[in-house]
Design a protein that fits this description.
heterodimer; A: mainly alpha; B: mainly alpha; disordered C terminus
Chain lengths: ~80, ~400
């Protein structure tokens, strides 16, 4: 039996971490952008919130681009 | 002459396998977005098909080995490959008919193993490789992806608890569309390459191509188109099981399971512990059901799927083994096999027509019916058994007159 337990462990940890990080970024970004929208509808200013929200969504987008980089063999 | 005939047959059958691979795995990427409405069914399969085609063309490294370490590479001959492909195609079609997702690579390995056993005996197969490459991943993949998806789902709901669902649904749908596209692209690079590898190997073995060279352009393009067409055709029966059958997916769940699927697939592809795309995405959907409070996971469906995964190798192996009895008997044997494949495909297709599932009704129900009589007796008085049949009878003549 030659089972690569180390690779299995790495895959487990990386998969769970990466998906959790992506989900947090996406969900928090959505929440902030939505909160800012509600605030500005009520007459307030949500500039700081909205930019933070889009920043988080942007990082999530970067994660997607990194995934793309991993998929396309010509990039590495 | 005989050899050339066998080579051409293997290429055609390899392309058919590629097609079944596409429609069997269409759901891996697109079941979630279709179930939540993030992408309309037609748009989703077109997107997945294009990405599969692009992915197949991107990755032109020859598959190093199609034996996967299960047996000696030297045992691979054109008749063995032909028998293995037949086993994989039949298994893919049968599991599609009953709407169960199962790994196309496992089916191919199973078919080849069955053919090798018939050709070279049981001792030529490395048993431990089956444990480490088939059994273990089949347990690990859904666990890892499932845990990831369950946590993600919990987090997604907790973080957006106070966000109006109009806002959160739009955001999550975008997230889902992006992650699903990544899964489709990754699928094209891994599975498109498999068929190219098979065809190239056969061409090299027949001295039609110098050894050590990569797939030729026409091989890349036809393999890419075959898997793309397969993906476009949708595999709606499997789509329904994955998008509706396991659990009702809400938008945040869809985004969470999409994230878990793509993260796990990419991690497994780049760290080197190969996991099946099918097992990963099914596990994610299951996990997203566990992670949401009040979601009803249909464990009976999950159990049936698990059985199908365990049976993939022996099932495809059995067909592959039987096919191997004929595949090295020259033109006559090969022609007989092709006729039998055509008959089997037609029969399965005709059965699927009885309870047809397509892009229009894919999300209408969670059940994939084959034969009313073949379903468990507990369902015998279930009104749902009759319901889907009636509108179809009305629809059919309409569709004909429109066409």
């Amino acid at each position: 039996m030659r089972i690569d337990w180390a690779a299995l462990g790495v895959v487990t940890v990386v998969s769970i971490m990466a998906s959790v990080v992506f989900t947090i970024l996406l969900a928090a970004g959505i929440r902030l952008v939505s909160a800012a929208k509600i605030k500005s509808n009520e007459g307030g200013s949500g500039t700081a919130t909205v930019s933070l929200g889009y920043a988080l969504l942007g990082i999530a987008g970067l994660l997607v681009l990194f995934g793309l980089y991993l998929i396309v063999p010509q990039f590495h | 002459m005989t050899e050339l005939f066998v080579v051409i047959t293997v290429i055609v059958v390899a392309l058919i396998f590629d097609f079944t691979n596409g429609f069997h795995d269409s759901a891996n990427a697109m079941a979630g977005p279709i179930a939540t409405g993030a992408l309309r069914p037609r748009v989703a399969v077109i997107l997945a098909a294009v990405l599969n085609l692009v992915g197949a063309c991107l990755s032109t490294a020859v598959a190093k080995t199609i034996s996967g370490g299960f047996f000696d590479d030297a045992l691979i001959t054109a008749p063995i490959i032909l028998a293995g492909l037949l086993g994989a195609i039949i298994w893919n079609l049968v599991t599609w008919l009953v709407g169960l997702p199962s790994s196309s690579s496992h089916a191919l390995f199973g078919g080849l193993i069955g053919a090798v056993i018939v050709g070279a005996g049981l001792s030529s197969v490395h048993g431990w490789v089956i444990v480490s490459k088939v059994l273990l991943p089949a347990i690990v993949a859904p666990l890892v992806a499932g845990i990831a998806a369950a946590w993600c789902t919990r987090l997604a709901y907790r973080i957006t608890r106070k966000t109006p669902s109009v806002h959160s649904n739009t955001g999550f749908k975008y997230g889902q569309a992006f992650t699903a596209s990544m899964v489709a692209l990754a699928h094209g690079t891994s599975d498109g390459q498999k068929t190219m590898g098979v065809i190239t190997l056969v061409l090299i073995a027949a001295n039609l191509q110098p050894s050590g060279t990569g797939p030729q352009l026409w091989v890349i393009i036809t393999a890419g188109v075959a898997i793309g067409l397969g993906t476009y055709s949708g595999g709606w029966r499997i789509m329904r099981t994955m998008g509706k059958g396991i659990v009702e997916i809400e938008t945040p769940q869809g985004a969470a399971s999409g994230a878990a699927t793509s993260a796990t697939i990419l991690a497994s592809a780049h760290v080197g512990f190969g996991l099946s795309t099918t097992h990963v995405s099914t596990g994610s959907i299951l996990g997203s059901g566990v992670g949401r409070d009040g979601a009803e996971v249909r464990w009976s469906v999950a159990r049936r799927m698990m059985f199908a995964w365990l049976l993939t190798l022996p099932g495809a192996g059995l067909v592959g083994g039987l096919a191997a009895l004929l595949s090295d008997r020259g033109v006559g044997g090969v022609v007989t096999l092709i006729v039998m494949l055509a008959v089997a495909c037609s029969v399965i297709y005709l059965f699927s027509r009885r309870h047809q599932i397509n892009h229009k009704n894919v999300t209408d129900s969670h059940e994939v019916l084959v034969l009313a009589s073949a379903t468990p007796t507990a369902y015998a008085d279930d009104p749902r058994l009759e319901a889907p049949a009636k509108p179809k009878k009305v629809k059919r003549p309409k569709a004909k007159s429109a066409a």
